[in-house]
Amino acid sequence: MNGKTLLEVRNLSTWFGPQDRPLRVVDGVSFHIGRGECLALLGESGCGKSMTALSLLRLVPEPAGRVVDGDVLLEGEDLLALPEMAMRRVRGRRLSMIFQEPMTSLNPVLTVGYQVGEVLARHHGLGRRARRRRAVELLAAVGIPDPARRVDDYPHRLSGGMKQRVMIALALAGEPDLLIADEPTTALDVTIQAQIMELLGRIRRDRHMAMLLITHDLGVVADHADRVAVMYAGEIVEQAPRDAFFSEPLHPYARKLFAAVPGFRRRGRRLQTIPGGVPRLDQAFTGCRFADRCDEAWDHCRAHVPREVSPAPGRTVRCHRFDPEVAAPPAAEAAPPAAAAAGAAPAAGGPVLAARGLAVHFPVRKGLLRRVAARVRAVDGVDLELYPGRTLALVGESGCGKTTVGKALLALVRPTAGSVVFQGRELTALRGEALRRLRAHMQMVFQDPFSSMNPRMEVGAIVEEGMRALGLGDAQRRAARVRALLEQVGLPAEAARRYPHEFSGGQRQRIAIARALAVEPALLVCDEPTSALDVSVQAQILNLLQDLQQKLGLSYLFITHNLSVVEHLAHEVAVMYLGRLVEQGPVEQVMRAPRHPYTRALLSAVPVPDPQRRREIIRLQGELPSPLSPPAGCHFHPRCPEAMDVCRRDYPQWSEVEPGWRVACHLQTSDVRSQTSDSSDSGI
Amino acid sequence: MSGNRSQRPFWRRPLLVAAALAALWLGLPPLLGLRGVYLATDVLLFVLLAGVLFLGAWMRRQRHLREPWRRVFHQKRAAVSAVVLVVFAVIGLADSIHFRKPLPPAPGAAETAWSVEVLSVLDVLLAHLREREEQTYSAPLATRLYVRQPVERGGRQVREYPRLRHGGAHLADPERQWAGDVARLALAGAGGGLALAALAALGLVLLLARARGESLARTAAGVWRGEGPVPWRTVLATVAVVCAVAGVLAGLSLHYHVLGTDKVGTDVLYLSLKSVRTGLVIGTLTTLIMLPFAILLGIMAGYFRGWVDDVIQYLYTTLNSIPGVLLIAAAVLSIQVYIENHPQLFETATDRADLRLLALCVILGITSWTGLCRLLRGETLKVRELDYIQAAVAFGVRPFVILGRHVLPNVMHIVLIVVVLDFSGLVLAEAVLSYVGVGVDPATISWGNMINGARLELAREPPVWWSLVAAFCFMFALVLSANLFADAVRDAFDPRLREQPA
Ligand SMILES: Nc1ncnc2c1ncn2[C@@H]1O[C@H](COP(=O)(O)OP(=O)(O)OP(=O)(O)O)[C@@H](O)[C@H]1O
Ligand code: SF4
Ligand code: SF4
Ligand SMILES: [Mg+2]
C-alpha cells in the first residue's frame, strides 16, 4: 500500500456463538483508510458495522464473540497480534471510538472533567492542574458553552447533544490518528446532528485525523465521507469514492437503498422496497448473500460466491454482474414502482377533527406534601384540523411536544385547556362510556414496535383486542376479520397464532397498523412509525400507509422528525417549537420556501443524499430550552439568527402568507418587515 | 386466555382429578368406620394444592411462563431441591388428612362415641413411633434412659439408668449386642431404601422410553450418561440418597429411638416429622393469604396512581412502621384469649391449636404483604408507560381488564420469585416466634416449639442436645432446598437474563 495508508484491514472475520454453528457476523472484510481520510461504512441494522469497529479495537464482547481471522495493520503494525498491554496504549491514543449510545457511554457518578482527565492522565501523563486546563480546552473545542463550569457537572445534567459532545471530547483527548464514530448522531435531532457532524468535520480537518464513520444514513454519507463502503450481511459489497458512488451506485443492494429513500422526487409514488430479510448468518454461504432479495439474480448467483472485482480504479464491487469472467444474462427490467397514486383527493367537506387552543400542562410536584411547584407546558395552545383522506405532518425536535399533541387529540392524556371536536362532538367534555364508544374512530400507531405490543399475547389476540373491547361481532367473525386484516397489511394469516417477539421490527409495525385498523377508525395518529426501522423497511411501511389511505380514506396525523418522510407523503405540514405551532401550510410550499426562521434552520439541517446539492446549513445556537420556563416573547428568539427587539418582548401573532399557510413570526408582520428587511435578507 | 378448544383437556383433566380426590377425602373415612376431621388448615392446604395444579396446567400453555419453568428444571440444583421439597410436601400432606377413631361401644349407648384424639394418616404410618413412649429423656439409639431413676432392686432402692421400655428392648445384653444390632438394622434399611430407589429409576426409564418412543436400553444409557436437558441422573441420585437415608432411619426406628426421646418420652424423630406440616402450613398459607392483597393493591397503586396510590402507599407505609413482632404478639395474644373464653366452639384440642395456627398465618400475611406490594407497584409504574397499555386505553379497554390482561401477566415473574423466596423466611419466622412465645399453640408440634423446649435442657449437665439438633437439621434441609429452588427460579425468570435477543 502507499505510504499514506493509515489503517489496513485484511480479511477480518468475527464470529459469535457456538463453535459448531457460529454466527459469521463479520465475514472476510477488507478495507483501508488513508491519513486524514473519512471512510463511511454504510449498512442496515445488524449487518455487522459495529462489530467490525469493535474488532479493530479488539473490544468484541468475549467469550461470546471472537476474531477468528484477518489482519488489522495500523501503519504496518498488526493490532491483532499485540499483547493486551500494548493494545491498551493503542486504544484512545491512536484509535478511539465514539459509541452509538451517548446516554449510556458516560459514567453517571463521575464528573465530566474527571472522565476527560482520566484519558489525559493515561495517555499524556498530565498533572492535576494541566489536566483540568486541557479538559476545559477540549470541552470548549467541542462547542460546550461555559466549559469552565461544565467541567464539574455530572453527565445527567447534560442534554443528549451535550453528552455526545463530551463523548467526542473524550475520544479526542488522546489525540488519535483515527476516530471511529459509530452512528454518532442517530439518537439526536437533525439540528443537533448537523452541529455534531459539522464539529467532527472541522476537527478532522484541523487535526488531519482520519475517521471511520459508521452510519445507515445516505444523507450523512453524502455530506461527510470521502469514500464509502457498503456492508451487507457481514460482508463489504461495494467500495467507491463518494461522488462516484452517489452518481452511480453499482451493487444491486446499494441501488435499492437509494430507491427506498423517500422525498419529493418520489412523492405520490410507491417507494422501492427490498423484499424479504437479511439471510441467517449461521451458515457458510455458497452463493451471493443478496441473491434472495435481488431482482437481477440468476442461477449463477445462487451457486457461486461472487468475488470482489474492480470495475473502475478505486472502486470494488462484489457482484457477478460486474465480473468480466462471468457471462451475465441481460438484467430483467426491474418493474417500475407501481403507478403513481392519484393525487390525493382535495379536502372534501369539513374536518374530521379540529383542535382549538389545545394545551397540556404537566404539574411538577415537589416536597413532602407534593405541592405543584411548576408546570411543564408540553403543549401550549395548538390549533389543528384533520381532513378525511389527507395527511397532516407534525414536525419538530424531540421534546417539543409532538407526541403529547397526538395523545391529547385521542384523549389519552387530558388536555388542560382547549377543545377537540371530533365528528362534531366535543371530546374534552366526554367521560366514561361515551368516550369509550368514540375511541373506535381514532387510533394510534406507536413509535417503538417493540414496546407497543404485550409480549404475553398472541398476535391474533392483540389485533382482536380493540374489537373485543368495543363488543364488535362474535368470536368467529372477529377471528375472520383478524385474518383479513393481517393479509391486508401483508402478513400471513397464521401469524395470528404466533407471539410478537417472533417478528422483525417492520413486521411488528405492520401488526400495530392492523391492530389500529381493526376498529375501522377514521383517523390514525402515527407517532414516528418508522423511526426505529431501516430505510428499506421504512419504505414498506410508508407504502402500506399510503395504500390504506387511498383505499379507506383515512386521515393521518403523522408525527415525525424525518423531513424526507414528510415530503414523501404529507399534504400539509405543521412545525412545532416548544409546545406551539410556528408554521403551518401545504407541504410543497412550506418545504420549498419556508418562512419561519426555525423551519428554515430545520430544513437546512437535513442531510440530503446528493453530494452535488451543496447547501448552507443555518446553525442554530444551543438547544431546545426547557418547557418549564419558555423564554419570554417569541420562544425561538434565543436561537433565532434574526431575532429583533420586538421578538424579546412579544409573542408573534399568526400571519397568513397565502390562504392556508400561516406563520407565527414578527418578520411576517408587514410593518416590522419593512423596518428590518436588511437583516432578514443577510441572514440566509 | 384465548379460549381455544383443542387445548381444553389440559385444564379439564386436573379438574376431574381434583374432584375425584375430594370425593375420596370425604367418602373414605365413613367407609373405614372412621370420622373424618377437616381442619381449616387441611382444607386450605388442599385448596392450595389444587390451585397449584391448576396454575401449573395453565402455565404449561403460556409460553412465557413455560419456558422459564423449563429452564428452572434444567438446573441441577433445582432438580435436587425439588426432590427434597417433594418429600417434605408428601410428609406434610399425609399429615393433613385427619380423622377420629370410634371408641369401643359403651354398653347401652346407641350412637358411637368418637375418641377425642385426632389422628392423621402420618400418625398411622408412624404408629410404632407415636405409641412407644418412654418415661423421659433418652439419647439417640440409646437402650437406657438418660436420667437416673430410683429402681427397686432386691428390695433396695437404687438410683440407676434403667432399660428403656421400647428402645433396644429386644436385646438381652445391650452392652454387647448393641453395635452389631444397630449396624444390621441400618444396613438392612439402607438396602431396602436403595432397592426402592432402583425401582423408581426403572419406572422413570420406562416412562421416559415410552414418551420418547426409544428403546429401553437407549433411554437408560442416556440417563446414565446424563444426556438431555433435564438432569435425570441427578434426580435419580438424589432419590437414591433420600431413599437410603429414609431406609436407615426406618430400619433403626423399628427397635430404637433414632433421634432419642424428649422430656415426656416422645420420640424426637416423630416430633420432627410432625413438625413438617406446621412449617409448610406457615410457609404456604401465609403467602396464599397475602397474595391477593399484595397483587391487587400493588398493581392498582402503580396503574391508577393519584389518590389510589396515595391511599395504598399510606397504608403500607403505616403498616411497615409498626414493629411486626409487636403486631404479631398483640394479635396472637388476643386470639389466645378469645379461644380460652369460647371453649364450647372447639370439639378437640387439635381444633383449638389449628385455629391458632391459622390465625398466625393471617397475622404473618398481613404484616408481610407490603414488600411484594411495593415491588409490584414499582414494576407496574414502569409497565403502565409502555405503549401497549396506551394502545389498550385507546381501544377503550376497561381499566380492570387492562390490569388483568396486560399488567398482571407482565409482572407475574416478580410474584413467582417473591413467593418462592418468602417461603423459607416464613418457615424460619415460625421458629423464632414460637421461641419468643407468640408462635403456634404450645400443643402444636413444630420446630419452633421443639427448639423452645430444648433450650433449657441444653443447660443441663450433661446437655440434652438431640431435640435441638433434630429440629435444626430438618429445618435446615427444608430451608436450604427452598432457597436453592428459589435461586433457580429467580435465575430463570429474571427479565435481564430472559430478554435476550430472540
Ligand atoms: N453479544 C452478541 N451475541 C450474539 N450475536 C451478537 C452479539 N452482538 C451482536 N450480535 C449480532 O451481530 C450482528 C451484527 O451486529 P452489529 O451490532 O455489528 O450491527 P450494526 O450493523 O452495528 O447494526 P445497527 O445499525 O443496528 O447498530 C447482528 O446480527 C447481531 O445480532
Ligand atoms: S451477484 Fe447476483 S444476486 Fe448477488 S447482487 Fe449481483 S446480481 Fe444480485
Ligand atoms: S419572531 Fe423574531 S425571534 Fe421569533 S422567529 Fe421570528 S424573527 Fe425569530
Ligand atoms: Mg451498531
Give an overview of the whole structure.
The complex is a heterodimer of chains A (684) and B (502). With 684 residues, chain A is α/β, with parallel strands linked by helices. Chain A has a domain at 5-94 and 219-322: P-loop containing nucleotide triphosphate hydrolases (Rossmann fold, 3-Layer(aba) Sandwich). Chain A contains 22 helices and 24 strands. In chain A, the strands form 4 sheets. An 8-stranded mixed sheet of chain A has the order 6-7-8-3-9-10-12-11, sandwiched between helices. Chain A is globular. With 502 residues, chain B is mostly helical. Chain B has 2 domains: 3-101 and 267-493, Orthogonal Bundle (MetI-like fold); 132-253, no CATH class. Chain B is 70% helix and 5% strand. Chain B has helices at 9-31, 40-61, 63-73, 76-94, 121-125, 127-131, 174-212, 216-224, 232-253, 268-304, 306-321, 324-341, 349-384, 387-394, 399-436, 447-457, 466-493, 495-498, and strands at residues 35-37, 98-102, 114-120, 149-153, 156-160. The interface between A and B is medium-sized, with 36 and 24 residues. The structure holds adenosine-5'-triphosphate (ATP), iron/sulfur cluster (SF4) (2 copies) and magnesium ion. Magnesium ion binds at residues 49-50, 100, 182-183 of chain A.
